[in-house]
């Protein structure tokens, strides 16, 4: 099949993601990602926060409170999202990221950018993985492929959040 460019696609075609969910959007790393995605202006950003969180999000960011002990709470918050970016603190419980990845799979989120960029930390916990989770883990290892879709550029192999 011949390569087709975006400008040759039918009306309504998009070559970037729009719906981005972020965990840790008010934290030391996440707040910069949120700010830059807002500057780009192509994304609908949803911040997932704990029910007891007092983090403030900038205007233009939808906030969904979640309960990490209730998987349906996570799945419901992730429904309709195209990307999940996880930027939790190192002090977050280890199993929290696993719960988020499982919920993302259940909600059919296509892309997950985890705290660590590979499968070994999840596999080391002895987790029984379903095919959906394995698929997500392979997608995580290819997160740099998503960088252009978010409107980001690479500088010396590191994401540079410049529009």
TrEMBL record:
Transmembrane stretches, start-end: 136-155
PANTHER family xrefs: CIPA-LIKE, PUTATIVE (AFU_ORTHOLOGUE AFUA_1G01630)-RELATED, NMRA-LIKE FAMILY PROTEIN
Gene Ontology molecular function, alphabetical: oxidoreductase activity
Residue ranges annotated for the NmrA-like domain, each copy included: 18-119
Listed name of the protein: NmrA-like domain-containing protein
Keyword Membrane part of the UniProt annotation: yes
Keywords: Membrane, NADP, Oxidoreductase, Transmembrane, Transmembrane helix
Gene3D superfamilies: NAD(P)-binding Rossmann-like Domain (3.40.50.720)
Organism: Adineta steineri
């Amino acid at each position: 099949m011949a390569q087709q460019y975006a400008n040759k696609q039918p009306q309504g075609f998009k070559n970037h993601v729009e719906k981005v969910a972020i965990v840790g959007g008010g934290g030391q790393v996440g707040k910069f990602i949120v700010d830059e995605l807002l500057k780009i202006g192509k994304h609908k950003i949803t911040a997932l926060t704990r029910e007891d969180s007092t983090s403030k999000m900038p205007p233009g960011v939808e906030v969904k409170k979640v309960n990490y002990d209730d998987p349906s709470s996570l799945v419901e918050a992730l429904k309709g999202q195209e990307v999940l970016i996880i930027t939790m603190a190192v002090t977050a419980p280890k199993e929290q990221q696993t719960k988020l990845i499982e919920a993302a799979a259940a909600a059919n989120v296509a892309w997950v950018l985890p705290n660590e960029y590979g499968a070994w930390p999840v596999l080391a916990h002895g987790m029984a993985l379903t095919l959906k989770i394995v698929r997500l883990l392979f997608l995580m290892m290819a997160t740099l492929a998503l960088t252009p879709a978010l409107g980001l550029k690479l500088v010396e192999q590191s994401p540079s959040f410049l529009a």
